[in-house]
Write a structure and sequence with these properties.
Layout lengths: L2 H15 L18 E5 L5 H12 L2 E6 L5 H5 L2 E8 L2 E8 L3 H13 L4 E6 L9 H10 L1 E2 L2 E2 L4 E7 L13 H4 L3 E5 L3 H10 L4 H9 L6 E5 L2 E5 L1 H16 L6 H5 L5 H20 L2 H5 L5 H5 L6 H38 L5 H36 L4 H11 L2 H10 L2 H9 L7 H12 L2
Parallel strand pairs: 1-8, 1-9, 2-5, 5-8
Antiparallel strand pairs: 3-4, 6-7, 10-11
Amino acid sequence: MNIKEAKKQIKEAAGLYFKKDSNGQYILPLGKQRPFFLLGSPGVGKTAIMSQIAEELGVAYVSYSMTHHTRQSALGLPVICHESYEGMDYDISRYTMSEIIASVYDEMRKTGKKEGILFLDEINCVSETLSPAMLLFLQYKIFGSYKLPEGWMIVTAGNPPEYNRQVREFDVVTLDRMRVLDIEADYDSFREYAIEQSVHPAVISYLDEKKDHFYKVENTVEGKRYVTARGWEDLSSIIKLSEKESIVVDINTVKGFLRDEQIAGSFMAYYELYDSYRRKLPVAKVLDGEMTDEECMEYRSNEFDEKIIVISILTEQLRSITSKVNAETERLVTMSVKLKEKEQTSEEEANNLSNLKVECKLLAIAGTKKLSNVFSFMDRAYGDDGSEMTLFMTGISLDKDISGFIARFGNEEYNNHASKLQISGRGELLKEKCKQIIEGI
């Protein structure tokens, strides 16, 4: 399954694990609350989704990499205690609290949240001496002498042996105590995440065109070659920061994250072209509807790669505009609800609400106009029924900010083109048309 499906599985299970009866007791017995084991190649997003899940569920979150733990740090250190049994004094050994369990209690104290997710990464890299204790923990949530608090869910992750020499394959006894999810790299899932995380548009548009470059791990006579989702995301962060600081992004920068000569070189060439178009494309004139027919027609003879870049740049601008309008509109809705719930509204609060209404209305009008102007440019530059328009419609229909804006405020040009292309919003037919165009390049 892909990482998006895995996230859904974990969230649904969390809802069941955290469910209580009328007496406030957890319905699913402790021994039946199987921990998850996300098994997949490196960099597919296993770690990235976990903090998202905890945030979306509103629960606490503690993360540990098990490669950093010895038996002592995981189980606690031995201490000598004095006890009396039947009139005789004895020195006996007990253990301090596990560092992992202690971190859970620290997080509960810090956040005030009693329920949470404990994420143990690289679980199949634990030492042999720790394995028996880990088996006990996975089944009964006990580390040493201390138990994980009620209301805490365990999720673990690891890589298959072919990707990590330290991996020890779990036996059936261990696997039978976990809920195993086999995770595969999937670009469509990454794309949704990438847009939410504001991954550099050059990365997204490049991978839209070359999905087979999204993930690659192989051993060759020249060494290991690998490109992962983590690599693309980290490269995006460096590119954005470099652009902000006016630092040139070169091939050596790219190779540091994309460890495959061919893919690194291909993306570098694309990024240089993207950067060139971003500098010379009169985005402000397009958004303001000031492009002449002659200026628009200049883009018709471009190579298809160049057209994709232009579409990507304009889509990114629309995403920025509509996300701001959507955020302000949500703020207006929240403020309105809060004031309605109050018995009395002050004059200042009423004025603030009125001003925000006006601001939202102006932003929506401006956003709608800019969207219409981009449609006008697309029509005049590329025609209203070609591959370019289908790609543009795909981009804005599958974008949560832009499609959310259109759903809220409407747009005549969007509706007209959707009707011409015989597509409906975010439907599968739209995706399929886009796929056929890309594969035909």
